[in-house]
From TrEMBL:
<dbReference type="Pfam" id="PF08357">
    <property type="entry name" value="SEFIR"/>
</dbReference>
<dbReference type="InterPro" id="IPR013568">
    <property type="entry name" value="SEFIR_dom"/>
</dbReference>
<feature type="domain" description="SEFIR">
    <location>
        <begin position="4"/>
        <end position="122"/>
    </location>
</feature>
<protein>
    <submittedName>
        <fullName>SEFIR domain-containing protein</fullName>
    </submittedName>
</protein>
<dbReference type="InterPro" id="IPR035897">
    <property type="entry name" value="Toll_tir_struct_dom_sf"/>
</dbReference>
Length: 122
């Protein structure tokens, strides 16, 4: 395992409390020496959000996908949010390009009841 792995956290924006939970999770990873990154650390990337998300996923050693009902529904809904949809499309493409060998994308759940919302390729 890498000494200081670079990690990107993909999650769904649900509400302020949930975002604080994600921020705390990321900060705890950083305190443990993991180079964790989330969109909450960036106000407005110069390259724009789509390119920023792609760069984060591509350059990360691991992508932690925080699976929950909100994330799952945004993935499979025609009215989905732009961020989750964009990240999931990149995720699927990476796994497809790796001939379904997934060593980069790791599902994370905060509640046991969210296990059913882990995306199929993960």
């Amino acid at each position: 395992m890498l000494e200081h792995p670079k990690v990107f956290i993909s999650y769904s924006h649900k509400n302020a409390d949930y975002e604080n939970k994600i921020l705390e999770f990321s900060n705890n990873l950083r305190a443990d020496g993991i180079d964790a990154n989330i969109d909450l650390y960036v106000e407005s990337p110069a390259e724009g959000w789509p390119r920023w998300m792609e760069n984060q996923i591509t350059n990360a050693d691991y992508v932690l996908v925080v699976c929950c009902k909100s994330y799952y529904l945004k993935c499979y809904s025609s009215n989905s949010s732009k961020g989750v949809s964009w990240e999931v499309n990149i995720l699927y493409q990476h796994i497809y390009d790796a001939t379904s060998q997934n060593t980069k994308f790791i599902p994370i759940i905060f509640e046991e009841s969210d296990e059913k919302y882990i995306l199929t390729p993960l």
